[in-house]
Specification:
Length: 336
Amino acid sequence: MTLKQEVEQIAASYTVKKKQVLLVIGLIHQGETHVFHFGDHPIQKRVQPEDVIFEIGSISKVLTTSILASMIQKGQMKLDDSISLYCPHIRKNHPIQIEQLATHTSGLPAHRLLRDFQLCFLPKVKRDMYCQYSLDELIKLLNSKKWNQSKTFPSRYSNVGMGLLGLVMGWSRNKTYEQLLTEYIAEELNLSNTFITIKDDRKENMILGHKENGKEVPPLHMLDYQGAGAIRSTITDLLSFLSAHLNAGSDSSWKMTREPRLKMGRNMSMGLGWVIDDTGLICHNGATSGFSSFMGFRPQSKTGVVVLSNYRNRIIQDSPDRIAYDLMNMLDAKIK
């Protein structure tokens, strides 16, 4: 069986009954890169699948922490810096440090149903999707008595926390988050289709996302917390980014992002942005209202995978996560 046939066997069930689906898979194996695509989206009539632009959701978080690592290596920021060093609106010597934002240990809120209920009765305020606090609300929260010097913060996956990290990094350099993304990632790796702001010359390559029920949704727009999930990219660019991590040498700043920093249950650890499981897979998934994605790699076997879909999945549905794990196991079996 050829590699393409094996990939098709693993991915085939995902595209069944999904109208205008495009599933694009990128593999790194034995020093070579492979791209496969499945589905019947009409964009394929004018754009090659490797050039189609997807929303990558929370995979953005590991680009954010990669920017952070580069800034740390350049001496522009330190992991133990207080966030108040870079924001005059946050009270001095705030106990939350940069590392805590990057490892989801700041204690900042996760998505909560109670907060959704509260928002029904609060004045209408513009908030980023998946982030239940506006920036003004978050600053007020950070300056409240909730935060004290002696508090040990819980581990809690927080979009506003990672989004705040992107903002803080930008404030430290008097730049926007997207300017940092361009400077430290896109220009460094020659990624021509990794961005946030939609410009006219890129619209033709952008694919529309779909909800779980197949309904098309408009492009995602995040204003404040872009570092948490606002990035758009292609399989080609993401494979280049993944390859840079996979081949990071001892002198690379990016190597620090995958060092385990705390346990997350029995089988997982947290690096800077990256999740590390007990098989040695370093990964992160992503989702927006119309897209789902997965990126992961194993340094010991020099294998990596990226899966991009223009469908958001229900919890009980087949997903890029399942496809990616099966693909990684398939690649590792070939090495053994």
